[in-house]
Amino acid sequence: MRLPDKMLASLLVIFSFSTKGAASWGTKVSSDPEVVWGALDHDVELRIPDFSMSDDTEDIRWVREESRVAQFKKGKSTYSLNGTYELVGNVTLKIKQLNRHSNSSYKVIIYNTKGECVLEKTFDLKVQEMVSKPELSWNCSTATLTCEVVRGTDVELTLSLDGKSLRTQQKIITHKWATSWSMTANCTANNRVSEESTVAVANCSGKGLHIYLITGICGGGFLLMVFVVLLVFCISKRKKQNSRRSDEQQEMRAQRAATEERARKLPPIPASTPANPAAAQPPPPPGHGSQAPGHRPLPPAHRAQHQKQKRPPPSGTQGHQQRGPPLPRPRVQPKPPQGTAESSLAPSSN
């Protein structure tokens, strides 16, 4: 073999050996950090891609913001901080029970037995809360479909209706439909660490009649209430009128009774004055010793005439019609008849 061929073959051997060593140890990495997503209250593992342990691996060190959290060193026990961190297979870093303060940058540095840094890689850990199962609900009276999720960080909601999709970055999505009374809805909630979905059939085909029935019942109840109010008002008004009329009648009766009582207490109206005052006096009883010797009882004709001149006292109706006490009338002294005077003078002449 000529000298140039030998030199070319040796160069090929050296190049192949260097390629195997690079594949085994990797190269020093200084690229952008790798983003890793973790679920809140769950564990996460930071794996080194394309790396395997070998006998030349001396030291594997995990650092969080320049603070050591875990380390593997050949011939010594594995170190982990506070039991929160653990080395799996002496290479992969496991972080237990992530919380909201676990968001940070983690760096791994690997050294060989010669003390050379063969690998350096950075991980950017971000923690999210897992989404809850979305809830589907619908209102047939307003033809509204609602999908809502309660828990989750950076939730993305997707509502699918008969091949059409609606998407939002909020925790609630609402859709109004007017094409049909029944449809299949699929609601999906997801983020970087979890995904949940719910499928339901929104059926309102048998509820349209119920809506009209409920509306009719409400309208009928309102009209019935108005009728009852008016009826109560009319009855109350009628009772007030009857009570007022009864009071007026009682008042009229009381006034009438008072007037009749006043009429009974008034003195009787005097009759026409008799022509002979002496004839108006009743005759003295017979045998009366104090009778004057010159007077005699009236004859029967004059007594009958005197009784006819007396009138009975006025009744209650006449007293009721009189509006007050009678006015006094002047008394006229009647002249005695001539026959009576002659008869009274005849005995005196004897």
From TrEMBL:
InterPro entries: CD2 (IPR015632), CD2/SLAM_rcpt (IPR015631), Ig-like_dom_sf (IPR036179), Ig-like_fold (IPR013783), Ig_C2-set (IPR008424). Residues 340-350 have a biased composition (Polar residues). The chain crosses the membrane at residues 211-235. Keywords: Cell adhesion, Cell membrane, Disulfide bond, Glycoprotein, Immunoglobulin domain, Membrane, Repeat, Signal, Transmembrane, Transmembrane helix. It is a single-pass type I membrane protein. Residues 1-23 form the signal peptide. Coiled coil: none annotated. GO terms for biological process: heterotypic cell-cell adhesion; natural killer cell activation; natural killer cell mediated cytotoxicity; positive regulation of interleukin-8 production; positive regulation of tumor necrosis factor production; positive regulation of type II interferon production. Residues 325-337 have a biased composition (Pro residues). Residues 240-350 are annotated as: Disordered. Gene3D superfamilies: Immunoglobulins. It is found in: Cell membrane. One of its GO terms (molecular function) is signaling receptor binding. This is CD2 molecule.
